[in-house]
Amino acid sequence: MCIPCCFTISTSEVGVIEQWGKFKRLANPGLGFILCPMEQLVGRLSFRVQQIDVRVETKTLDNVFLTAVVSVQYQVLRENVFEAFYALTNPAQQITAHVYDVMRATLPTLELDAAFEAKEELATSVKNALSESFTSYGYQILQTLITDLDPDQRVKNAMNEINSSKRLKFAVAERAEGDKILQVKSAEAGAEALYLSGVGVSRQRKAIVDGLRASIVEFSGKTSAEPKDVMDLLLLTQYFDMVRDVGSAKHCRTTFVPGSKTSADQMRASLLQVDAATSK
């Protein structure tokens, strides 16, 4: 005698019903009935997106071992529920095996730096390989993501040291370039200051000579001054300025000046003697 038995199927799921061990039908979401013991609810399949995280340890072309984490997102195809339920014994385990195969075949062909740059290409390779293998079994591979590439800690420390050394070298070069610019600008400023100082001294002396010439012309009543008269007056003026400066110096005690005649020649000789005395 067959006894009706009820069951429920959740939304986004489908039930698989067998009769005497043979596939009979699919049960849609909601309340359902089976005839015991003829029929039996043998399983359920979810249409929700599922994810498997696969950790793969392998080495790169430059013999660096790293651990890659691959996240595979897949979903059961509604039109292939029969294949999804009966074709594969353990879908998650078989997907993991394919991921291992693809990653261990691809990563050893790349160096460590290239592996980090080729994450998108690696993910695409895994997705293509899984799609070719599992679409016929009723599973759709939605996305594959390389969520982590983790080399040994010593390798990461070495990479950080290399990066730090490069940045330090760049900083030293920039600092040296800055010091060079400061020195060049300082030298240019010094040269410009000396040039302007020379221009100022030249203008000062020209103004003094012009003033002395005008004074000689005014006092002598002549229309022009002789160069010798101007030079004599200039030397006399500089002589008195020098005497004042030497006398006001802290370590100066005595100044020797011969003073019997006042000619220009004796004045020049006096200046030479004073210069010799102050230099001693």
From TrEMBL:
Signal sequence region: none
Residue ranges of every copy of the Band domain listed in the record: 4-163
Domain of life: Eukaryota
InterPro entries, alphabetized: Band7/mec-2_domain, Band_7, Band_7/SPFH_dom_sf
Pfam families to which the protein is assigned, alphabetical: Band_7
Protein name: Band 7 domain-containing protein
Organism name: Pseudo-nitzschia multistriata
Lineage: Eukaryota, Sar, Stramenopiles, Ochrophyta, Bacillariophyta
